[in-house]
Amino acid sequence: MALDEKLTLHSTLCRRDAGAFLQALPSGDDVVVACTQEKQLFTALAEQAEGTVSVVRFVNIRETGGWSRDAQDATPKLAALLAAARLPDPEPVPTVTYKSAGRLLVVGPLALAERAATLLGDTLDVTIFSTGGDGAAGGMQERRFPVLAGRPSALTGWLGAFTFAWTQDNPIDLDLCTRCNACVEACPEGAIGLDYQIDLARCTSHRSCVKACGAAGAIQFGREVRTLSESFDLVLDLGAQPLVTLHAPPQGYFRWDGHSPDTLLKLREMVGEFEKPKFFTYKQSLCAHSRNTQVGCNACIDICSAQAVSSDKARQKITVNPNLCVGCGACTTVCPTGALSYAYPRVAEQGLRFKTLLSTYAKAGGKDAVLLLHSQQQGQKLVEQLGREARLKHLHGVPANLIPVALWHTASTGIDLWLSAVAQGASQVVVLATGEEAPDYVRGLESQMAVAQAVLQGLGYTGTHLRVVRSETAAALDAGLQSLSATRQRVPAVAARFAAVQEKRSTLDMALDHLITHAPLGADALPEAIALPAGAPGTGALLGSITVDTNACTLCLSCVSACPASALQDNAALPQLRFIEKNCVQCGLCATTCPENAIELVPRLLLTPARREARVLNETKPYACVRCAKPFGTLKAIEAMLGKLAGHAMFQGEALERLKMCSDCRVIDIYSAQNEVKVTDL
Question: What spatial distance separates the first Cα and last Cα of the chain, rounded to whole Å?
């Protein structure tokens, strides 16, 4: 919004000004409700009102600014939040569809499983898998639900497409069992409980239970062990040891503590067709995972807490299962090339949001802007709780220079947007970790921040520009936010005006160019290069150079074909290995592919114009064919080949000489030789 725009203020908007809200809806102008307390009410009014053409958006300026001890200084921040609220909605993204018919598998002790089944059976088609236990609690005498038993072996899939496998090895077949309890009474060892499974460790083969079972024939000790599987739409896991140990389990998988009703209420609603955004886009041409069966970058695979990313080395790519993806965006953050990019919202849209917040804040007279990136779930709750505590004078509240930015997930932004924000005037970019994130996500953010901070420090931007604040309570968050003022950050004298683009490396290059141009050290005092943290792709630098051992390198150029970023190039006219440092993503594919182990990575940021220019890493004289004098290889490569094959029985005399010929002359020499046996002679 324009800072000089005339606005009609409604200080008591909560319910009392509903009439003014309704009058604004037919205007066609954007309607911004600067409070989220009555969001549900105003949304309902907008849906029911006739002639509504305006777009309605909501923004919280109460807990984030007005309810703080710094409220009197928060006007620039409020202007920034209102301006960002008027940005157009992100473009739609493709969706992933789930279909659930309500087939629910409840896995756990029989008594607890039957209790859960009773609460859900009116809505869902429930099957119970009894995990046994001591059997003392037992189950219902009335068989109301199908009951399976055995040893779980695997659970795979997602909402609407789970496959559960188990081994059936107990002598009692629950399908045939009548629950007459005769076997329980007859067993002299007490090895059979009311879960109707035999504890084989206690059984001494009296077989009294078999006799007691009689005509039912549910007990057979000689029954063949079988591995079975069945499909379900939903899974409720009640076991002490979860079937799925991932930090981000698949949609449709739930755990229940036996007390809280929230989980059961969610399950009751999981029938029908559901959609979620496809959170990512993937460009195989940029991917540095694999080339020619050699593996380079595994960053996305290693960091995914949902195991949604897997390797397809044969096809030289990674595969992302959209059904398992939970939209954290960590894979896009650690991707050095930008082959994986976040789409909900897109990088360009998120960059526009950051730029709008920072430019409006500065235009309104704000100083030392701090962006607080937090999740839409727990992070949002924590920020709002901090505002309420500040209202009651219990805590300080959100600082006046700190602008909260809600994200789907805090791991969805990375070094390209962080450095862009600093270039555009942000004093700090802070990510709020509330404990809901996977530990690997936080470590991934911190490793990328270390790279970005090294760049800023090397350019003379003193202070700590990038931080992760870990807080699980409002008090801890308050302390963490107040500690941000302990350091003073230098920022570019001129704020950047570029717009972030979808391509990660392009956005990063624009940010670096601006930061270098306006570096506090000045052009004359800048070092030639800034050393950056080393590490595997995703944990270390995504910028750097390589060194080539020229004594070992034979210029086979296998590294050129392996490079996914065109950083390594050959020369059609001369035997040369050339390198453009700006393009290097430090994936390591060149080093992995090199048969001579002649390549090492050098993480750094080169500050001279040579960063964009092709430079020669190795060159040698061409080797000319001894028959026609045409160059066909390098002197070093041919000499190495001759040295290795000279003692071989197949390469003696004329055969050895042919290794010194080009491919055309080699064929001619074979057919013209009088002492050679030819196929045509047979």
Answer: 89
CA dihedral 491, 497, 502, 506 (to 10 degrees): -70
> What does the CA dihedral 377, 119, 273, 257 come to, rounded to 10 degrees?
30
Structure tokens at 343: 């789409």
Contact status, residue 61 vs residue 81, Cβ threshold 8 Å? yes
Residue appearing with tokens 């307390």: 37
Helix (H, G, I), strand (E, B) or coil at 529: strand
Residue 507 near residue 351, CB atoms below 8 Å:
yes
DSSP 3-state assignment of 177?
coil
List pLDDT tens digits, range 302-327. 999 999 999 998 888 999 999 999 99
Judged against a pLDDT cut of 50, whether residue 1 lies above it is answered with: no
Which residues, in sequence order, are bridge partners of residue 311? 318
State the pLDDT confidence band at 33, using cuts at 50, 70 and 90: confident
Residue 674 exposed, middle or buried by CB count within 10 Å (0-12, 13-18, 19+): exposed
Read off the pTM. 0.87
Instruction: Calculate the CA 562 to chain-centre distance.
Output: 25
Q: Which structural domains are found in the chain, ordered by start?
A: 1-58 (no CATH), 64-91+367-517 (3.40.50), 543-619 (3.30.70.3270), 625-681 (no CATH)
Tokens standing for 497?
């005006």
Q: Are 289 and 314 in contact (CB under 8 A)?
A: no
How far is it between the farthest Cα atoms of the chain?
107
CA distance linking residue 66 with residue 201, whole number of Å: 67
303-307 contacts: CB < 8 A, separation 24 or more? 303/330, 303/331, 303/334, 303/440, 303/441, 303/444, 303/538, 304/330, 304/331, 305/246, 305/247, 305/248, 305/330, 305/438, 305/440, 305/441, 306/246, 306/247, 306/248, 306/249, 306/250, 307/246
Spatial distance between the Cα atoms of 669 and 665, rounded to a whole number of angstroms: 6
Place of tokens 């005006």: 497
Q: What is the DSSP-derived secondary structure letter of residue 192?
A: B
Distance CA 248, CA 595 (A): 40
Query: Distance (Å, rounded) from C-alpha 403 to C-alpha 74?
Result: 10
**Are 348 and 502 a contacting pair, CB within 8 Å?**
yes
- Neighbouring-strand partners of residue 231: 163
User: In whole angstroms, how far apart are CA 597 and each of 436, 552, 556, 558?
Assistant: 42, 8, 12, 12
Helix (H) / strand (E) containing 422: helix 415-423
Please state which of the ranges 8-12, 392-396, 565-569 shows the lowest mean pLDDT.
8-12
Nearest to 340 by CA among 289, 272, 402, 265: 289
